[in-house]
Design brief:
Layout (H helix, E strand, L loop, with lengths): L3 H11 L4 E2 L22 H15 L4 E5 H4 L7 H11 L2 E6 L18 H20 L4 E5 L3 E2 L7 H18 L5 E5 L9 E2 L4 H11 L3 E6 L9 H10 L3 E6 L16 H13 L8 E4 L8 H19 L4 H9 L3 H13 L3 H10 L6 H8 L1 H15 L6
Parallel strand pairs: 1-2, 2-3, 4-6, 6-8, 8-9, 9-10
Antiparallel strand pairs: 5-7
The structure holds alpha-D-psicofuranose and manganese (II) ion (MN).
Length: 392
């Protein structure tokens, strides 16, 4: 393959991926958490870890914040976040309201039959917009976990109207430069119907909310076998793809490391986005994972490196050449050409790019050598061991 170093370099120059604050903290499954000595126990520690990932990879300038977890006092915490941004050189990225944990939301948040509870949820959404405005964050990422567990127990149609009202009110509060991303998920925590279960529902709600509302695709939020890159292609066509939450899965929303099960799928998604050219310029990439068994910061670095490699591989495809093969229906040649980019070992070219940027050639190796994990493990051990063992 010719021009590999240039193509890879160009792709990586433009590639940025956001990391989630919750990727550094003790998370688990609904059966429990295995506490790690080095897990972040405060927002400051999350920023510190994010700063380390940025130092190692050069690709993660922003950290996604979850309002209840990272700004429990709402707007009053904005000053502290600004201080952390300066101290660690990492900016606040997408702002994620939390519509799934407060006790009031047992029967839903913005789709709750109680007008009072819907109002509570809208207040939280508006507070989240205010936080995003104050921190200069472009995206408000909304995941609505609402739904029901048993047939006949809720009115699906009335709930659609309630959601439309709440989302339109949120959209109206956005600044000109801001966007609202609507994430969908087929099931969990609701197991009969989820109010925003797929991309069609998310797209219709986005359309009803306003021009700066887009759809957020989380790779873990699909049934097995779903052709996610096709959904991505349709959303790009509709100018409605806001962003991607990347992770991997074997069964459901498993939150496994991106590319650990099916790297070819992430490659195909990246190709679809790259092939849309300029139109895809504003698609936001984020890692949305929970590292239950792996060491947190190592898992984040591993994910970023994998994302960079897969993005670089997708960039090796000469789109004109592929179009010619497609248009002349040379099936095997087209498939082999497409796959040859996926099989190509871009690691030497990626390493080359890292060195040109003054970054460590091997981020995971550099992390191990730095002693960072050992240091935070000893500094945070006491706090982590004191944390009570709670079921998530
Ligand atoms: C829900 O499964 C989700 O993907 C949403 O993006 C949440 O904000 C995130 O995970 C963290 O729980
Ligand atoms: Mn997500």
């Amino acid at each position: 393959m010719s021009g590999v170093v240039e193509r890879v370099g160009e792709a990586l120059d433009s590639f940025r991926i956001e990391i989630p604050s919750w990727g550094f903290a003790n998370t688990g499954t609904r059966f429990g958490k295995f506490l790690q000595d080095g897990a972040a126990t405060s927002v400051e520690e999350k920023f510190a870890d994010a700063g380390e990932v940025l130092r190692l990879t050069g690709a993660t300038p922003t950290i996604a914040l979850h309002v209840l977890w990272d700004l429990p006092n709402g707007l009053d915490d904005v000053g502290e976040i600004r201080r952390l941004e300066k101290k660690y050189g990492v900016h606040a990225g997408s702002i994620n309201p939390n519509l799934f944990q407060p006790q009031e939301y047992k029967f839903g948040s913005i789709a709750n039959p109680s007008a009072e509870i819907r109002q509570l949820a809208v207040h939280h959404l508006l507070d989240s917009v205010a936080i995003a405005r104050a921190l200069n964050c472009r995206d408000l990422s909304i995941w609505v976990s609402d739904g029901s567990n048993y047939p006949g127990t809720q009115s699906v149609r009335r709930r659609i109207n309630w959601m439309e009202g709440a989302l339109a009110a949120t959209h109206a509060a956005l600044a000109e430069s801001q966007r609202m991303l609507i994430e969908y998920k087929p099931f969990e925590p609701a197991f009969y119907h989820t109010d925003i279960a797929d991309w069609g529902m998310a797209l219709l709600l986005a359309r009803a909310s306003g021009s700066r509302a887009k759809v957020l695709v989380d790779t873990g939020h699909h049934y097995a076998g779903t052709n996610i890159e096709q959904i991505v292609a349709w959303l790009l066509h509709a100018d409605a793809l806001g962003g991607l939450h990347l992770n991997d899965r074997k069964y459901a929303d498993d939150d496994l490391t991106l590319g650990s099960i099916d790297p070819y799928q992430i490659f195909r998604i990246f190709y679809e986005i790259q092939s849309a050219g300029e139109e895809a310029g504003s698609v936001a990439y984020m890692i949305d994972q929970s590292h239950n068994i792996k060491s947190k910061i190592e898992a984040v670095v591993q994910s970023v490196v994998t994302a960079q490699e897969l993005f670089a591989r997708a960039a090796l495809i000469d789109r004109e050449r592929l179009s010619e093969l497609q248009d002349s229906c040379r099936v095997v040649e087209a498939e082999e050409y497409f796959r040859s980019a996926f099989w190509f070992d871009v690691r030497p070219a990626v390493q080359d790019w890292r060195e040109r940027q003054g970054l460590p050639a091997d981020p995971l190796g550099a992390l191990a050598e730095s002693g960072y994990v050992a240091r935070i493990s000893s500094e945070r051990r006491e706090k982590n061991r004191k944390a009570s063992f709670t079921y998530a």
